[in-house]
Design brief:
Blueprint: H1 6-20, E1 27-32, E2 41-43, H2 63-80, E3 92-93, E4 99-101, E5 110-120, E6 131-137, E7 148-151, H3 183-195, H4 205-213, H5 215-229
Antiparallel strand pairs: 1-5, 2-4, 3-4, 5-6, 6-7
Helix pairs in contact: 4-5
């Protein structure tokens, strides 16, 4: 499994399956690890321009002592140097010709335990025209335990906690969660929940009260929230 845990291996297979067969209008993908978490790659290639990295060491009287000082000082300078500029070809160099190439932003690899997704609102419902983004947080206990799904921004909905966490029986291991449930099934179930809230299990007080008091007022409020916070956009 190339060093992957059981949870990560399962999620890798989930990603393959999703890319082959995803519902129309949906998207889902693992998040990228920060580039800073990836190690620097070194090579012994000669630098194109030895002047691109400035040493902070004081000048010395002889060539031998200057060479020794430069080798030591540039080692620390290269570690504290900021992101490489386009003029250096994406590389920092020291006086000994070592190139330290930092990983490009957003290319630290995929974090299979952290996903982001977008769910389209169904046509003919107050959620139509919206795209509802959420984060899926998996643990190493997956698929024994379900992911935590969090809308961002928080959704105005009776079954969404003020934190944005989705309240849904298939996401509760003490209720209807099963290890065979896939990411595709989770997202489709959440889409279905949008226009069919479970009023027996409310999680957010205001939308629940409005929904129970006046359905038209609730639907008007949903449309306002969609227009203001959840309009579909390119990813």
């Amino acid at each position: 499994m190339s060093g992957l845990s059981l949870a990560q291996a399962r999620l890798r297979e989930e990603r393959k399956a999703w890319r082959k067969d995803r519902p129309f209008g949906f998207w889902a993908r693992p998040r990228e690890k920060p580039a800073s978490s990836a190690p620097l790659a070194f090579s012994s290639q000669a630098p194109q321009d030895a002047t691109t990295l400035t040493s902070t060491a004081a000048p010395t009287a002889t060539a031998n002592s200057s060479s020794s000082t430069t080798a030591g000082s540039t080692g620390s300078a290269s570690r504290s140097h900021t992101a490489p500029t386009a003029s250096t070809g994406g590389n920092n160099s020291d006086a000994k010709g070592l190139l330290a190439s930092s990983t490009a932003a957003g290319s630290g690899g995929l974090d299979l335990l952290e996903w982001e997704a977008g769910i389209p609102g169904k046509p003919g419902t107050p959620f139509e025209g919206g795209e509802f983004r959420l984060l899926l947080h998996f643990t190493e206990d997956y698929p024994t335990r379900p992911p935590k799904c969090v809308f961002t921004p928080v959704l105005f909905h009776p079954n969404v906690y003020p934190s944005g966490t989705v309240c849904l029986s298939i996401l509760n291991e003490e209720k209807d969660w099963r290890p065979s449930i896939t990411i595709k099934q989770i997202l489709l179930a959440i889409q279905e929940l949008l226009d069919n809230p479970n009023i027996k299990d409310p999680a957010q007080e205001e939308p629940y009260k409005v929904y129970m008091r006046d359905r038209k007022e609730y639907e008007d409020r949903v449309r306002q929230e969609v227009a203001k916070h959840h309009k579909k956009r390119m990813v």
